[in-house]
C-alpha cells in the first residue's frame, strides 16, 4: 500500500527541504510548529498529484456531481487524517522518528479547523470523507470563517470564550484560487425593463454593493483510492481592492461601504447550535456563499455541456438544513435573468436539482426572516421568492379549495416572514430526516401538511460517522485488535465488524478488548490530569457526556443525578458503590445564559465532590475544557458509558452516540433519534434505555405540558437535590447563583412551561437505569461482552452506508475510479 511518493528517505528529504525553504533553518533548529508546517507541505505535495489525477478522471468520465452546501464543516485536524487515508501513517511516523520527532506531538501543532458548531457540521465533514472514499464526485461548499467556533476556557467554573484565530500561522492544507473569484451583489433595487426583442421583462439589479468571493480549496482525500475531492470555502474581498478600474472611483462612501461589507462577512461563525438568531450578517453570509457556489457550479456545467435543461441529470444541490435554502432562488435568478429561460423551464430545472435535509424539529431553530430585512438586502431574490410563493399558494388552493388554514400553515411568505423550510420543501425534489424516528415525526407532526401534499418527496437517511477518523485514527489500539481478528476490510466496509460477534463470549478476546479500553482510559486520565489537574482512576467507570450544551440534551439531568448519588454516598457511607468518573465536555453558545450556568453548576459540583475526602474517591466529576474534534477522538476511545439522554423526540439523530458505540461504550439513553436504531442493532440487553417515549412527550406537549411539582412534592430525593440548588450547597452559601436553574424546573416565575424538557418526569427512571449500569459493570465478563457487542454491531452507523443511500435514493451519482 505504500505509495511510491512515500518512500521514507524521499519523504525525510522533502521535510528537510521544506524547513529550509520556509524558515531558513536546519531540521535541528526548527520548532515543532515549523516541523508541522514542513511535514504538511510534504504531504500536500503527494495529495496534489492525486488531486490532479482525480480532476483528469472527472473531466474524462463526466460523472454527476453533488454539491454539498453547508454553512458548517467541522473538519477537525487534517494531517493525521490525510496520512490515514493515504495509507502512509505508519511510514511517516517512522520517518519522523528517525528525524527525532513524534508524529503525535506534530499532529498536536495543528489548529482544529472548527468551521462548525456540532453535529450538523461534523456530519458534513464525515460525508465528504465517505464521498471521496466511495469514489463519488462531490464538492463541499462553505465559508472560510476567519474565526471558527470559539475556544472555551473555564475560569472560576464559568465558560469564557476566546477567539479561534486558526489562520494566524497559515493553514498548510488550503489553496487560494483567485482566478475563480465571483461577484456577489447586495442591496439596491430591481429595475424592470421591457425587451421588445423577446417580448419579456428584464429584471436588472441596480444601485447595489458588490463583494468578491474568493475560493479556497481544501483537499478531501479518499481512503486508499487516489481520489481527492474538494471542499471549497469562500472568502470575501472588497471589489475595489481587486479591480480598481471596475468601480466608480468618485463614490467614496460606496467604496467604504463595500470595503466594510467585505470585511465583515467571513469574520466569524455564529456559535449557535440548534438555534436561530435572525441576524442580518448571517443572512449576508448565507447569500454570499450560495451565490458564489451556484454561479461557479453553473459556469462549470456550461463548460462541458450545451443544454442547461440537462442540469438535473448532472448536478444535485444538497441543502444541509435550511441555511443554504437561498439556493432555490439564486438558481432561479440565474436561469431566468442570465440564461433567459421562462419561469416554467427554470422551475422545472430547479425543483429537480435541489434537495433538502432537515436536522431538527426544535422550533427555536427554524429560520424565519423578516420580509423587511430580506427584501432590502436581496431585492431580486425576494422578488423571486414572492413569485414562488404566489404560485405555491395557487397550488395549495387547487388542492384544498377554500382551505385558508392550509395556506396559513404552509405559505412560504406569511405574517411578515420568509419561512426557509417551506421554500426548501417547495423548491426541491427530496426532503429527508436524519434518523428513522425523526423522519416519522417530520411526516406525522412538524411537516404533516407538506407530507400530505408531497408524500413522494419525503425519505429517511439515518446519519453515520466515518470509522477512518473515529476508530482507525482515534483508537489505534482497538483498530489493530479488530484487524488482527477479522482483517482490515472494515476500514471501507464497516458491516464486517459483525464478524467480531463470535468473540463476544471468548474470555481471551474479552480480556484483550477490556485491556485496550483500560489503556485508552489511562491515556485520557493523563490528559485530564494535565489539562484539569484532576486525578481520576482509570479503574473507575468512565461515564461520559460530550456534546453541545443544550437544555434538550439534558446535561442538567446528568449533574442532578450526580448530586443525588453524592447525597446517597454521604448518607450511607457503608453502601456498596462502584467508583465512577462522570466526564462532561460541552460548549454553550455565547449568549445562552442558562446553558452557561449549567456549565458552572457542573464545575461547582465537581469542586465539592472531588475535594471531599470522606467519599474515598468513589465519585469524581470532570469537565473537560474546550471539547472539540481532536480531543473527542481520545474521549470516545476511553468511554465505558455513553450518555444519550435527550428528551425523547428532540434529538433528530445524534452522531456522538455512534462514535461511542463504535469504540465499545455502552449507551444509557432515551428512545430518541438514532438511539432507537442503535438499540435495534445491539439488542435491548446491551444498552440501558429509560424514560418517556417520544409519543408520550409529544402527547404532553400537545395537551399543555405536565406538572413537575408533583415530583418535587412527592419525591424526597428529587426535592433534596433541587433544594441544594438554592441553599448554597454548591455555591459557598450563595442562594441566588443557581436559582434560574431551579426556577426553570419548577417555574415559579418564568413564562415558559416549567421543566420544558421533562427532567423531573424522567429523573427516577434515569437513576434506576444508572443503577442497572452499575450492577452490569460489576459483572466483568458480562460487561466485556456488552462492550464488545457494541463495537461488533455498529456497522450500520458508518457514513459510507449513509452516503450510499443518498446516492441510490436521492443523488444517483456515478462511481469513479482512478485508472
Ligand atoms: C443536529 N441539528 C441535530 O440536533 C443532531 O441530532 C443531528 O445528529 C445533527 O444535526 C446531524 O444531523 C442541528 O445542528 C440543527 F442545525 F439542525 F439544529
TrEMBL record:
Function text: Phosphorylase is an important allosteric enzyme in carbohydrate metabolism. Enzymes from different sources differ in their regulatory mechanisms and in their natural substrates. However, all known phosphorylases share catalytic and structural properties.
InterPro entries hit by this protein: Glycg_phsphrylas, Glyco_trans_35, Pyridoxal_P_attach_site
Pfam families registered for this protein in UniProt: Phosphorylase
Lineage: Bacteria, Bacillati, Bacillota, Clostridia, Lachnospirales
SUPFAM superfamilies linked: UDP-Glycosyltransferase/glycogen phosphorylase
Family: Belongs to the glycogen phosphorylase family.
Stated name of the protein: Alpha-1,4 glucan phosphorylase
Modified residues (N6-(pyridoxal phosphate)lysine): 659
Source organism superkingdom: Bacteria
PANTHER family hit by this protein: GLYCOGEN PHOSPHORYLASE, GLYCOGEN PHOSPHORYLASE, LIVER FORM
GO terms under cellular component: cytoplasm
GO biological process: glycogen catabolic process
CDD domains: GT35_Glycogen_Phosphorylase
Amino acid at each position: 500500500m505504500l505509495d511510491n511518493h512515500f518512500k521514507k528517505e524521499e519523504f525525510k528529504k522533502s521535510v528537510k527541504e521544506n524547513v529550509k525553504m520556509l524558515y531558513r533553518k536546519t531540521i535541528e533548529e526548527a520548532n515543532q510548529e515549523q516541523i508541522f508546517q514542513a511535514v504538511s507541505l510534504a504531504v500536500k505535495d503527494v495529495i496534489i498529484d492525486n488531486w490532479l489525477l482525480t480532476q483528469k478522471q472527472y473531466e474524462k468520465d463526466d460523472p454527476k456531481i453533488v454539491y454539498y452546501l453547508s454553512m458548517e464543516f467541522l473538519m477537525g485536524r487534517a494531517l493525521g487524517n490525510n496520512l490515514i487515508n493515504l495509507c502512509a501513517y505508519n511510514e511517516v511516523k517512522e520517518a519522523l522518528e528517525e528525524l527525532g520527532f513524534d508524529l503525535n506531538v506534530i499532529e498536536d501543532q495543528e489548529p482544529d479547523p472548527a468551521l462548525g458548531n456540532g453535529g450538523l457540521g461534523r456530519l458534513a465533514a464525515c460525508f465528504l470523507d465517505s464521498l471521496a472514499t466511495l469514489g463519488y464526485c462531490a464538492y463541499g461548499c462553505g465559508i472560510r470563517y476567519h474565526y471558527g467556533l470559539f475556544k472555551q476556557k473555564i475560569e472560576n467554573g464559568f465558560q469564557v470564550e476566546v477567539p479561534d484565530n486558526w489562520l494566524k500561522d497559515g493553514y498548510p492544507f488550503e489553496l487560494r484560487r483567485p482566478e475563480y473569484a465571483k461577484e456577489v451583489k447586495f442591496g439596491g433595487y430591481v429595475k424592470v425593463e421591457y425587451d421588445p426583442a423577446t417580448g419579456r421583462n428584464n429584471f436588472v439589479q441596480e444601485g447595489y454593493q458588490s463583494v468578491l468571493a474568493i475560493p479556497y480549496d481544501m483537499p478531501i482525500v479518499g481512503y486508499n483510492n487516489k481520489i481527492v475531492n474538494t471542499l471549497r470555502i469562500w472568502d470575501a474581498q472588497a471589489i475595489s481592492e481587486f479591480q480598481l478600474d471596475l468601480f466608480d472611483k468618485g463614490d467614496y462612501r460606496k467604496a467604504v461601504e463595500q470595503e466594510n461589507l467585505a470585511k465583515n462577512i467571513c469574520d466569524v461563525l455564529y456559535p449557535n447550535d440548534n438555534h436561530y438568531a435572525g441576524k442580518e450578517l448571517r443572512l449576508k453570509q448565507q447569500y454570499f456563499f450560495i451565490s458564489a457556489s451556484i454561479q461557479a457550479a453553473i459556469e462549470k456545467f456550461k463548460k462541458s455541456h450545451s443544454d442547461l435543461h440537462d442540469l438535473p441529470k448532472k448536478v444535485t444541490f444538497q441543502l444541509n438544513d435550511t441555511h443554504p435554502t437561498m439556493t432555490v432562488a439564486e438558481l432561479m435568478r440565474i436561469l431566468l435573468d442570465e440564461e433567459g429561460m421562462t419561469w416554467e423551464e427554470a422551475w422545472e430545472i430547479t425543483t429537480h436539482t435541489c434537495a433538502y435535509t432537515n436536522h431538527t424539529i426544535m422550533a427555536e431553530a427554524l429560520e424565519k426572516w423578516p420580509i423587511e430585512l430580506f427584501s432590502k438586502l436581496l431585492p431580486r431574490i425576494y422578488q423571486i421568492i414572492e413569485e414562488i410563493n404566489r404560485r405555491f399558494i395557487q397550488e395549495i388552493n387547487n388542492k384544498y379549495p377554500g382551505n385558508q388554514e392550509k395556506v396559513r400553515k404552509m405559505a412560504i411568505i406569511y405574517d411578515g416572514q420568509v419561512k426557509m423550510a417551506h421554500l426548501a420543501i417547495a423548491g426541491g425534489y427530496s426532503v429527508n430526516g436524519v434518523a428513522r424516528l425523526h423522519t416519522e415525526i417530520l411526516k406525522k407532526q412538524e411537516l404533516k401538511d407538506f407530507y400530505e401534499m408531497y408524500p413522494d418527496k419525503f425519505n429517511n437517511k439515518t446519519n453515520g460517522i466515518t470509522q477512518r477518523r473515529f476508530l482507525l485514527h482515534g483508537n489505534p489500539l482497538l483498530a489493530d485488535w479488530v484487524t488482527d481478528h477479522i482483517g482490515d476490510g472494515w476500514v471501507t466496509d464497516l458491516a464486517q465488524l459483525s464478524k467480531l460477534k463470535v468473540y463476544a463470549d471468548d474470555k481471551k478476546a474479552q480480556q484483550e478488548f477490556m485491556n485496550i479500553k483500560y489503556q485508552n482510559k489511562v491515556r485520557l486520565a493523563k490528559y485530564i490530569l494535565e489539562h484539569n489537574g484532576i486525578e481520576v482512576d482509570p479503574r473507575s467507570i468512565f461515564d461520559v457526556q460530550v456534546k453541545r450544551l443544550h437544555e434538550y440534551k439534558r446535561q442538567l439531568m446528568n449533574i442532578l443525578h450526580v448530586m443525588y448519588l453524592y447525597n446517597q454516598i454521604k448518607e450511607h457511607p457503608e453502601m456498596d458503590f462502584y467508583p465512577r468518573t462522570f466526564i462532561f465536555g460541552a460548549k454553550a453558545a455565547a449568549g445562552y445564559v442558562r446553558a452557561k450556568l449549567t456549565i458552572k453548576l457542573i464545575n461547582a459540583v465537581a469542586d465539592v465532590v472531588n475535594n471531599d475526602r470522606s467519599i474515598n474517591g468513589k465519585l469524581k466529576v470532570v469537565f473537560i475544557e474546550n471539547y472539540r474534534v481532536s480531543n473527542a477522538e481520545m474521549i470516545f476511545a476511553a468511554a465505558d458509558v455513553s450518555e444519550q439522554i435527550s428528551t425523547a423526540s428532540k434529538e433528530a439523530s445524534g452522531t456522538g452516540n455512534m462514535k461511542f458505540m463504535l469504540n465499545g461504550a455502552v449507551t444509557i439513553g432515551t428512545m430518541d433519534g438514532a438511539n432507537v436504531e442503535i438499540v435495534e442493532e445491539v439488542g435491548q440487553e446491551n444498552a440501558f434505555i429509560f424514560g418517556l417515549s417520544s409519543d408520550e412527550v409529544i402527547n404532553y406537549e400537545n395537551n399543555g405540558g405536565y406538572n413537575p411539582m408533583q415530583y418535587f412534592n412527592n419525591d424526597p430525593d428529587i426535592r433534596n437535590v433541587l433544594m441544594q440548588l438554592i441553599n448554597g450547597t454548591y455555591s459557598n452559601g450563595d442562594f441566588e447563583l443557581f436559582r434560574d436553574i431551579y426556577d426553570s424546573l419548577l417555574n415559579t416565575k418564568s413564562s415558559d412551561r416549567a421543566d420544558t424538557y421533562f427532567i423531573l418526569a424522567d429523573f427516577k427512571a434515569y437513576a434506576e437505569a444508572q443503577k442497572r449500569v452499575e450492577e452490569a459493570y460489576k459483572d466483568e465478563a458480562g460487561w466485556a461482552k456488552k462492550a464488545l457487542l457494541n463495537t461488533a454491531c455498529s456497522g450500520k452507523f458508518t457514513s459510507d452506508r449513509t452516503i450510499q443511500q443518498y446516492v441510490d435514493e436521492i443523488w444517483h451519482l456515478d462511481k469513479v475510479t482512478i485508472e
